[in-house]
């Protein structure tokens, strides 16, 4: 009994230390799980900690569970033994173009000018089609499998502004016809995710695909998650610049030549701000209202708390 208690406290304090470390995690650290170079914090031990913590709590079953198999798309570059899972729409477009570029023979690429927009038009359809892949989580052809993760609530907020405010302007049915009402969207989404988790819903909506927990993607489960290298996409420009630098380090480690890296870096740095809503006035306003709204925070907790646990991110929710 006492030793159980001590064990639980130990696990909690380890998680606390990691959380504190992660809150400083911005530009410098590389792999998300290797912030602390100490075997106690190895991914195996962390995963174990998570399992123990989850099990020892009287886990509210009302939380949306992690690791429900969901649509997963990947991009690969066999030449560089590199693969990436595409979770977030915005970044995933960039990842696709980047990997297409890596797979495109050099003489082809000289014409290409922009990774983000026009560049796409110069890439060969065939090369880009061949860049797509499925089920790479356990494929040993790729020595590094990347996944870019983001704060779950910030990710929801960004999607909400993009889909349920901007896109809904032109399409009434968007976001379940909720007309910019976040609580309405969250309630609907919470019910849908419960049904999906219970395998009672067979077709997924556009909104499901954008708001599903990150742990549902990438063929993640307790085992495959260990095969990934995580890059954390922050909300500030410095953090995002840091992520891009880490990504360039990965390319460098995999033998991508310097001039290719320089070109990619130039494209990404110059076009980065356009691809983020973090600075927009509307997002700031909606975000402030969201954080003050207890019902919104309750539903976000139910949907995303397990994402915070799985990826060892600092949870913004007060509940335990
Ligand atoms: C887990 O942590 C223990 C120390 O608490 C350490 O001895 C062990 O090597 C770690 N396991 C792994 C797989 O890193
Ligand atoms: C690439 O994929 C698209 C859509 O799946 C298809 O229409 C197109 O024919 C493919 N192009 C090539 C060159 O394989
Ligand atoms: C791994 O990926 C490579 C390249 O996409 C593919 O040719 C191979 O069949 C895959 N292996 C497995 C076991 O799926
Ligand atoms: C590529 O750049 C790195 C640092 O950015 C440098 O250490 C390395 O020497 C360069 N390699 C070549 C072949 O220029
Ligand atoms: C490439 C891409 O999808 N870019 C989008 C990123 O998000 C912003 C705002 O949400 C959109 O305006 C971009 O079109
Ligand atoms: C480096 C750079 O500026 N790349 C591209 C960014 O996106 C614009 C289009 O919006 C392109 O014109 C640039 O070439």
UniProtKB/TrEMBL annotation:
InterPro entries according to UniProt: Chst-1-like (IPR007669), Sulfotransferase (IPR005331)
Keywords from the UniProt entry: Signal
Signal peptide interval: 1-23
One Pfam short name: Sulfotransfer_2
GO BP annotations listed: chondroitin sulfate proteoglycan biosynthetic process; positive regulation of response to oxidative stress
Entry keyword annotation includes Signal: yes
Gene Ontology cellular component terms for the protein in this record: membrane
GO molecular function per UniProt: chondroitin 4-sulfotransferase activity
Record bears the keyword Signal: yes
Name by which UniProt lists this protein: Sulfotransferase domain-containing protein
């Amino acid at each position: 009994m006492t030793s159980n208690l001590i064990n639980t406290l130990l696990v909690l304090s380890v998680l606390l230390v990691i959380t504190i470390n992660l809150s400083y995690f911005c530009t410098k650290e590389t792999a998300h799980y290797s912030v602390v170079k100490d075997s106690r914090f190895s991914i195996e031990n962390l995963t174990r900690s998570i399992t123990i913590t989850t099990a020892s709590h009287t886990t509210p079953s009302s939380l949306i569970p992690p690791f429900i198999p969901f649509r997963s798309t990947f991009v690969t570059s066999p030449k560089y033994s590199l693969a990436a899972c595409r979770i977030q729409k915005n970044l995933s477009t960039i990842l696709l173009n980047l990997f297409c570029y890596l797979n495109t023979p050099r003489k082809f690429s000289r014409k290409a000018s922009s990774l983000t927009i026009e560049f796409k038009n110069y890439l060969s359809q065939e090369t880009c089609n061949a860049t797509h892949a499925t089920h790479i989580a356990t494929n040993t052809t790729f020595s590094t499998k990347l996944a870019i993760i983001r704060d779950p609530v910030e990710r929801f907020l960004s999607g909400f502004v993009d889909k349920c405010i901007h896109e809904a302007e032109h399409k009434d049915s968007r976001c379940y016809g909720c007309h910019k009402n976040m609580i309405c969207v969250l309630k609907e989404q919470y019910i849908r995710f419960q049904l999906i988790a219970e395998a009672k819903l067979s077709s997924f909506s556009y909104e499901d695909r954008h708001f599903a927990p990150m742990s549902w993607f990438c063929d993640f489960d307790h085992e495959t998650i260990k095969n990934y290298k995580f890059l954390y996409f922050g909300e500030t420009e410095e953090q995002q610049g840091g992520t891009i630098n880490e990504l360039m380090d990965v390319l460098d480690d995999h033998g991508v030549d310097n001039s290719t890296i320089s070109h990619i870096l130039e494209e990404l740095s110059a076009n980065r701000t356009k691809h983020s809503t973090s600075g927009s006035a509307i997002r700031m306003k909606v975000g402030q209202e969201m954080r003050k709204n207890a019902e919104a925070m309750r539903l976000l907790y139910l949907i995303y708390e397990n994402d915070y646990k799985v990826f060892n991110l600092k949870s913004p929710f007060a509940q335990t």
